[in-house]
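Example S7 (structure tokens).
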């Protein structure tokens, strides 16, 4: 792809995300698995929680920090996560040049099936699994991202074309420069696969009583082995991970649903409001109300843009 084509594609993506996400925060698209991201100010390093997803930043820059490593995702790189993962992020953005992005949530079961099919058809040499990768945006991924955004501008195309393009983007991530590591992470067998299954259970049932012994038993591991393998994948102990999941979900309930702190604490499984307040401040650095007020614009979710935007002429 020539530099001129690359610049034109990037400009096209910026134009489309600006149209589909007119306000700060996350804007739902007409396809349930896709949200558009817009941020108009820099955000210092702060705890975050992503579901299994592919995140494409088309303008601005984000950095993820996990397990003593930094991952840059910007106009030249996309971020892919194989499992639900708490980590830290920072954002470079301004009112003049907002951070624009696409967040594509992936269904772990469907992607694991795709990964297994790929491995049968084109087996790679053995590669270590990775929970998170930042990979270069090549011509095919950029082209697919443009086509997805264009499809999301039209109700019929959102329903009939966008799901196939989203699957194509997942396919490209699994066959890209670091696709082998992602496929290894999503495989159902082996220690990594069993830890990934436990992470998905925690993600789906964080508001219920969860104990490490049961999780280890379901993974067919002893408690010490499960603890060690779990920490190798997430950089946190099982108890720390469960706590982080509950606190992040409580933060979102306060920001997006307007829940009071005590109600959010109860809904994510806390029995003690004072314990919740202590642990929330320890993780986020601020009391619940202050944190929710500070991040209201950045983490709020808006409904899809309803007007049919139509297809503007492409310039590439």
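Recovered sequence:
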């Amino acid at each position: 792809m020539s530099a001129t084509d690359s610049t034109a594609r990037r400009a096209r993506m910026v134009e489309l995300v600006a149209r589909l996400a007119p306000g700060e925060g996350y804007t739902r698209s007409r396809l349930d698995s896709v949200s558009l991201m817009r941020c108009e100010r820099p955000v210092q390093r702060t705890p975050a929680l992503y579901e299994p997803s592919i995140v494409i930043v088309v303008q601005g820059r984000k950095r993820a920090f996990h397990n003593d490593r930094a991952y840059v995702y910007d106009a030249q790189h996309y971020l892919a996560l194989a499992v639900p993962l708490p980590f830290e992020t920072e954002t470079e953005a301004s009112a003049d040049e907002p951070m624009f992005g696409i967040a594509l949530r992936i269904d772990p079961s469907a992607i694991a099936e795709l990964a297994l099919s790929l491995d049968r058809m084109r087996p790679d040499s053995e590669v270590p699994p990775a929970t998170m990768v930042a990979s270069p945006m090549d011509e095919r991924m950029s082209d697919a991202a443009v086509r997805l955004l264009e499809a999301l501008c039209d109700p019929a195309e959102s329903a009939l074309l966008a799901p196939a393009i989203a699957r194509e983007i997942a396919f490209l991530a699994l066959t890209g420069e670091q696709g082998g590591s992602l496929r290894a992470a999503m495989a159902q067998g082996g220690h990594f696969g069993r830890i990934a299954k436990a992470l998905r259970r925690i993600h789906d049932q964080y508001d219920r009583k969860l104990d490490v012994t049961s999780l280890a038993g379901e993974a067919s591991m002893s408690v010490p082995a499960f603890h060690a393998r779990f920490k190798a994948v997430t950089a946190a102990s099982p108890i720390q991970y469960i706590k982080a999941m509950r606190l992040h979900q409580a933060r979102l309930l306060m920001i997006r649903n307007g829940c009071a702190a005590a109600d959010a604490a109860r809904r994510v499984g806390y029995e003690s409001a004072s314990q919740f307040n202590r642990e929330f401040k320890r993780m986020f650095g601020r009391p619940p109300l202050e944190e929710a007020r500070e991040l209201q614009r950045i983490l709020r979710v808006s409904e899809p843009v309803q007007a049919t935007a139509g297809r503007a002429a492409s310039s590439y």
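Notes on this example. DSSP finds 14 helices and eleven strands in the chain.
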